Amino acid sequence: MLLSRELIFGKVGGPFLADDKRRELKVQSTSVQQCTAGFAQIFDQWRANATFKVLKGWRNEQYPVYAANKQLLFNVERSVSPLLGIVTYGVHMTAFVRTKGSDPTGMLFWIPRRSKNKQTFPSMLDNTVAGGISSGETPLETLVREAVEEASLPEELVRKRVRAAGTVTYVHVRDRRAGGETGLDQPECQYVYDLELDPEEHVIPRPNDDEVESFSLWSLAEVKKALARGEFKPNCAFVLIDFFVRHGILTAETEPDYHEIVTRLHRKLDYPMA
Amino acid sequence: MLLSRELIFGKVGGPFLADDKRRELKVQSTSVQQCTAGFAQIFDQWRANATFKVLKGWRNEQYPVYAANKQLLFNVERSVSPLLGIVTYGVHMTAFVRTKGSDPTGMLFWIPRRSKNKQTFPSMLDNTVAGGISSGETPLETLVREAVEEASLPEELVRKRVRAAGTVTYVHVRDRRAGGETGLDQPECQYVYDLELDPEEHVIPRPNDDEVESFSLWSLAEVKKALARGEFKPNCAFVLIDFFVRHGILTAETEPDYHEIVTRLHRKLDYPMA
């Protein structure tokens, strides 16, 4: 397989980086493994030379890179992905409790605050569980793993009760808050999940790694106010808005831009995808 | 307000109708009312002269026509709308019962069969309640009205229990099954609703007008089979697929085109909208 200069070159850095930051990428290979290894050598050099600031966030996690025909081209270190302008995939789950039967105004939400040491969006509010999908992992397996790792939720309970509820898509344009180079396109597709918890069971998410500072149970009114104040990490706000749409909290009668919001939450990403 | 020849001319009939069927539309007016009345004269003539077959389905219902800036231009008889290529709006509700707690595999669905005398898609399967939103009506008021008219559901119960759950968008290209001219673009935006019924309450939808032949309570497996056989009116199938996505019945693990289906169900309509 030959990845032509044109396929990749236009993406690395794009128009937002100074000329001396642009790089040509070309690897000649017949297999995903060889291609992955060939590019990895280049990326390792970039890291060693501190060519790009975003590589300070090196994760040792592999993300897939697809061609337009859904073919897997190669895998790439997660922190390199913004430089390639590829779609990355993640999972976001909202855990909630009902206190007024089916009436959504009685919902309570488990809201985590991100650790103040997080590289991106420190101390901002987040969805109950969220994480990136690595190469070869399915959305559900990622979700179960992250629910245990980040929120100490029992695996069996998550597998039994969690409900997939679609996807949310957007293009995050990296700014200063995200660290590293600004202006890079990061198209993302998040698989969204709901987890309804029974108040009688007293299942409480608790921090388990250094990602989350604390979890609190917030009323719908409190969540809305925090959204309005911009306290949520932006893509987590999208996921909550999608939750509000799906559960009849945000309606056409209360929001003039209702159908436009619904459409934009599911926008077509004009990039090769899985 | 001047509606330029260019604005409307390209839409009436479009490239699919023979030249002698094309019409120029031009009305000079400063108000929505005058514009509506001016066009209505032309449409009434078309109806009298049987210029277009779709006008055989004259409904005496007014639909809104918007400019790109969301401004209301004029209202138009419903059956004329396919000739103008404008977005029309409707409501679709899925009434269901849970028999296995939160496990969606235990869901039962109230499925109506359309009357064999319906002008469009006779005898096909439908969503529990569906209808077009007339000029000046809100989605929720349309839904409540149609739930009473079409399915004999108690108004109070519908108002209390129904949950808005987003929109579904698509472009219906009129074919022979829909009657009238073929190949006309009909972009549509459907506001979708869920109504969960309590099996203990024995609320049963019943036909109330000549739209529906009968309602039956179908298992999820039966609904899936009927979908696979193409027995549902196509836009009702979209609404059920969206329901399956929102309730975790259709998942990324079981459907390779999952995120593409989710995106397409909420496609951006490249037409002026409300």
What's the topology here?
The structure is a homodimer of 274-residue chains.
Chain A (H helix, E strand, L loop, with lengths): L4 H5 L22 H18 L12 E5 L5 E6 L3 H4 L3 E11 L8 E8 L14 E4 L6 H13 L3 H7 L1 E11 L11 E13 L14 E8 H9 L5 H13 L11 H8 L9
Parallel strand pairs in A: 3-7
Antiparallel strand pairs in A: 1-2, 3-4, 3-5, 4-8, 6-7
Write up what this structure looks like:
Chain A has about 270 residues and is an alpha+beta fold. Helix content of chain A is about 30%, strand content about 25%. The first copy, chain A, contains eight helices and eight strands. Chain A has helices at about 5-10, 30-50, 80-85, 140-150, 155-160, 220-230, 235-245, 260-265; strands spanning about 60-65, 70-75, 90-100, 105-115, 130, 165-175, 185-195, 210-220. In chain A, the strands form two sheets. In chain A, strands 3, 4, 5, 6, 7 and 8 form a six-stranded mixed beta sheet that branches. In chain A, strand 3 (about 90-100) and strand 4 (about 105-115) form a beta hairpin. Chain A starts with a helix and ends in a 9-residue tail after the last helix. Residues about 1-20 of chain A have low confidence and may be disordered. Chains A and B meet through strand 6, strand 7 and helix 8 of A and strand 6, strand 7 and helix 8 of B.
